[in-house]
């Protein structure tokens, strides 16, 4: 019965994508291109949940331009933003089935597919932004990108997603203020553990449903980085932003291994080179966006607080203790040693 339900679920994802993109011929295009690159264009479809003004979307557009340029038009990346082809979990499943080439997701929903990705959900793991990027560029970060290959998911890069902090309709000064609050989280076991440890009530929900849910009081608060807070317009509803910076969850660009393995080696190189160039571009515009978006939300009347982080850090000690003596615990130790 379980296998039948899984098959039906997979078929549902596939049908949704096929209905939205009637001309989905990705597998055929890749196969033909491998044998006769000069005669056939490789079309890679990339789906994600962000708004088109978001710096991560802009970086992927930059990547698509570089792919076309480097391949002299033989390769094309078509981008479908704003959950046009499904939410993050559905897009990951579509990659596994080979019905979608690439997706950009937060590492949080990847936990359900690649358990080692839980490491990014450990609250207050990274000392600061510099430590975070040193880890992502280290062998630890590179190994994690490839940790999902057995699940048909290959990471191509990390994009900066800054630090996540709380925003709400009321001011949050300490973890005690979270007690009884329904806080939207991603579909992530680690996010739920963290909120529960702090005293809040974690409420998983797709990103696209959050604005209305905040407006109608289905949830009381959420947590995210500044550019996402601004581009989602959640600041129109939530006038308090507490920069406790509890986690740094990078965005990750993932390709289906079925698609990757079907690409000619030259096309693999072109794609990876374009992706790498887009990371440098994204980090630049992300830093600019964090500054400009913070200014926008402040001008819109949002009160920004820089709380004492120590009470928040102490409140999540149980999350750290849970992984003592495990593979994740060993990985925590390795990450803390990065200098």
How does this model look, in words?
With 339 residues, the protein is an alpha/beta fold. The chain has two domains: 202 residues, Bacterial extracellular solute-binding protein, family 7 (D-Maltodextrin-Binding Protein, domain 2), CATH 3.40.190.170; 130 residues, 3-Layer(aba) Sandwich (D-Maltodextrin-Binding Protein, domain 2), CATH 3.40.190. It has 15 helices and eleven strands. The strands form three sheets. A five-stranded mixed β-sheet has the order 2-1-3-10-4, with helices on both faces. Strands 8-5-9-11 form a four-stranded mixed β-sheet. Strands 6-7 form a two-stranded parallel sheet. The N and C termini lie far apart (50 Å).
Which terms would index this structure?
single chain, 339 residues, alpha/beta, D-Maltodextrin-Binding Protein, domain 2, 4-stranded mixed beta sheet, 15 helices, globular
CATH topology of the largest domain: D-Maltodextrin-Binding Protein, domain 2
Oligomer: single chain
Biggest sheet strand order reads: 2-1-3-10-4
Number of domains: 2
Helix content: 40-55%
- The overall pLDDT average reads 90
Rg result: 20 Å
Number of discrete helical segments:
15
Strand content: 15-25%
- Characterize the main sheet: 5 strands, mixed
Q: Which class do the helix and strand fractions yield?
A: alpha/beta
> How far apart, in Å, are the first and last alpha carbons?
50 Å
CATH homologous superfamily placement of the largest domain: Bacterial extracellular solute-binding protein, family 7
